[in-house]
Design brief:
- The chain is mainly β.
- The protein is 10% helix and 49% strand.
- Strands 2-1-6-11-8-9 form a six-stranded antiparallel beta sheet, with no helix packed on it. It has a five-stranded mixed beta sheet with strand order 3-13-12-7-10, with no helix packed on it.
């Protein structure tokens, strides 16, 4: 009788152990650019210049809007042998006021939706590549952090999470090619009242375009300079006092960017 009771207790304990172990098992893996990113943080750097304010005029009414957005694709792999119905949800960790973010999981959900309505079935040992997360800075600078969780519909503890940090900074679009940056001096005088000047150390293009943006990424002023000019000089008398971003580009490629301060 004692042996029977011990056997029953052993079996019961084993069942509980297996149930707990199964409930917290991890059957999902997340990939970005074929790299495993479970529990990682991915930095997505935006382009402040591209995040410009647009206007739309219809029947005399003018609408202002931002079209630029950052997006990231995340592949979800079902590591188990059986098909799995997978939901996704987002968690705001750090949000910049005035921005928007949303995700697409077979369908694109509105920014105010935090969890998918319908699950996506992923066959065993297969990967779904239909997920994407989107961020619309809408002219706002700073970093936003959102965590994206994917979980088994039948066992929410069976989940995987990745965090994405969206960065919109006036320095984030500064050219990565330092060789081209070194072709130009920094803008001077800085601060300035009337003009800014940039020395061209070595001409490498037929013409250069100098653009000035405010800190929301809105283009304020631009001027095109022909090849052969040793100094790019722009009159900024009409600008309001404050900090501005400038960029030098050629044929659509940004060669140098920086900041200057306009005195009142």
């Amino acid at each position: 009788m004692k042996h029977s009771i011990k056997n029953i207790l052993f079996v019961f304990t084993a069942i509980i152990f297996l149930s707990i172990n199964t409930s917290y098992s991890q059957s999902l893996e997340l990939y970005h650019n074929d790299i495993l990113v479970n529990n990682d943080t991915i930095l997505m750097e935006g382009n402040v210049i591209a995040d410009s304010l647009y206007t739309y005029v219809f029947q005399g009414d003018t609408t202002y809007y931002y079209a630029y957005e950052l997006d990231i694709d995340i592949d979800v792999k079902n590591m188990s042998n059986a098909p799995m119905s997978v939901h996704t949800k987002k968690t705001h960790l750090k949000i910049i006021a005035g921005t928007e973010n949303y995700f697409c999981w077979e369908t694109c959900y509105a920014p105010y939706t935090f969890e998918s309505v319908h699950a996506i079935e992923i066959p065993g040992k297969e990967t779904s590549d239909i997920y994407s997360a989107h961020y619309k800075p809408k002219g706002q600078l700073g970093n936003t952090m959102v965590a994206y969780t994917f979980f088994n519909e039948l066992n929410p503890n069976d989940s995987a999470v990745v965090t994405v940090e969206y960065s919109m900074d006036e320095a984030s679009f500064i050219g990565e090619n330092h060789q081209t940056e070194n072709l130009f001096s920094n803008a001077y005088p800085n601060p300035s009242t009337n003009n800014i000047c940039i020395d061209v150390k070595e001409a490498s293009s037929d013409k250069y375009e100098l653009q000035v943006f405010d800190l929301t990424g809105r283009k304020i002023q631009e001027e095109v300079f022909a090849k052969g000019q040793a100094i790019l000089k722009m009159n900024i008398e009409e600008l309001l006092g404050g900090t501005y971003i400038y960029s030098i580009s050629s044929e659509g490629n940004i060669l140098k960017s920086g900041k200057f301060f306009k005195l009142p």
